[in-house]
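Weekly modeling sync, notes
Attendees: S.R. (lead), two postdocs, one rotation student

Agenda item 3: backlog of single-chain predictions. S.R. asked that every request posted to the team notebook include the full sequence so nobody has to chase files. The rotation student volunteered to paste the first one in as an example of the format we agreed on. Action items at the bottom.

Example entry:
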Amino acid sequence: MERTLVLLKPDAVRRGLVGQVISRYEAKGLSIVAMEQRTITGEVADTHYAEHVDRDFYPPLREFATSGPLVAMVLEGDEAINVVRTLTGATDGRQADPGTIRGDLSLSNRENLVHASDSAESADREIALWFPNL
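Predicted structure, as returned to the notebook:
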């Protein structure tokens, strides 16, 4: 079994899509290991998105990530990282395939509803940041 971090971003919470998004992951057979709603600080955003901090697109991303509550969760299942990323869809919701979360529910590149770990190394680092007791 593999674990991955998923963040339902402030736009998902604001739009009332949390239950719908979670149900897609559960319907696929993934299990929720941990879940918590919280509002993050700029410092947590900087740590989470460390590889992007010096990039031009980061300041608006940071502002968005800290703009309201989000739902952080750890999902577990067979090949969970790839399964979650496939269900989530391409980063830009305008280009994501229909049937994916972003393809069906997002029209943005930044406000794209979900963050999902992109590798086992990222998942380990992100889970340790968001859920240090796991």
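Discussion: group reviewed the output briefly. The two ends are 15 Å apart (CA to CA).
Action items: rotation student to repeat for the remaining queue; S.R. to check formatting next week.
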